[in-house]
Amino acid sequence: MKKTFIPEEFREKYSKIMGKESDTFFEYCKIKMPKSIWINSLKIKPEILVKELREKEWILEKLFHENAYSLKEVTRPGQSEQFKQGLFNVQEKSSMLPALALDPKKGETVLDATAAPGNKTLQLSCLMNGTGKIVCVEKNVQRFKSLNFNVRKFGMKNVIAKRMDLLEAKRKNIFDKVLLDAPCSSEGLVRKNFDALKEWGFGLVERKAELQKKLLQKSLQLLKVNGELVYSTCSLSPEENEGVISTAIEEGNAELVGVKFSDFKTRDGLKEYNGTKFSEGIEKCVRIYPQDNDSQAFFVAKIRKTST
């Protein structure tokens, strides 16, 4: 069996962060993630699809939303006819939480800032019941193709896909809500890909953090005053999370909003790391450790824009 690659620097860093829980944390890093799905309620009622899949002897267990289910003993859900028809999407359960935290309403104008391949875009479209407008942006050519494909496949009629660099956007104060699932060092993917940390290093984390700060600043410019933004990563590095959020809060035109998820364990944001103290209220951010819910690692923060 192939072993999970964990760099020594990564092990040292998270031994300090996790403390007495470090052994459990690293053990979960080596275990493959369980599968889960998001039901596409734009095409089918969740209860109808669940009944249909259970008749195929699929073992499904409802998670924290009527569209979200865990799968057991289903090895290749992506090869099913229901998936090919766009009736559900295979999506890791932690990665569903940012869209739920944003909680978009029917008729709103929403930006999915770095959207490919469109998993969270589908969630937003379902939560809005296909109403309003979602603008989803992706810079990379190949990733944009996958985004466009999924917009069509899942029938997201309220979605406009744009291939562009978000940092080049000129307009301001136009979106009711923004989801920024930022490009990151992808530490959380170690449970999906045994070699996910092959390119990991402090330099990578620092480069990603600088990009994330720019993307968050631009996203806040695009957000209306009193609008809400959710920032997320599949990394646990404080540099990419609390550090990025603190920089934005210290600009003085935004405040943190508390985030709660039912039936899902979360931890508070770190108040300090490596001698650096973060902004007041940073504990309102949410850290998701793999051992708490047998999930991917994730970070989620919700921000309200208070002024221009």
Automatic annotation (TrEMBL):
Pfam families: Methyltr_RsmB-F (PF01189), Methyltr_RsmF_N (PF17125). One of its GO terms (biological process) is RNA processing. InterPro entries: Methyltr_RsmF_N, MeTrfase_RsmB-F_NOP2_cat, MeTrfase_RsmB-F_NOP2_dom, Nop2p, RCMT, SAM-dependent_MTases_sf. Keywords: Cytoplasm, Methyltransferase, RNA-binding, S-adenosyl-L-methionine, Transferase. Transmembrane segments: none annotated. The keyword Methyltransferase applies. Signal peptide: none annotated. Residues 25-306 form the SAM-dependent MTase RsmB/NOP-type domain. One of its GO terms (molecular function) is S-adenosylmethionine-dependent methyltransferase activity. This is tRNA methyltransferase. It comes from Candidatus Iainarchaeum sp. The lineage of its organism: Archaea, Candidatus Iainarchaeota, Candidatus Iainarchaeia, Candidatus Iainarchaeales, Candidatus Iainarchaeaceae.
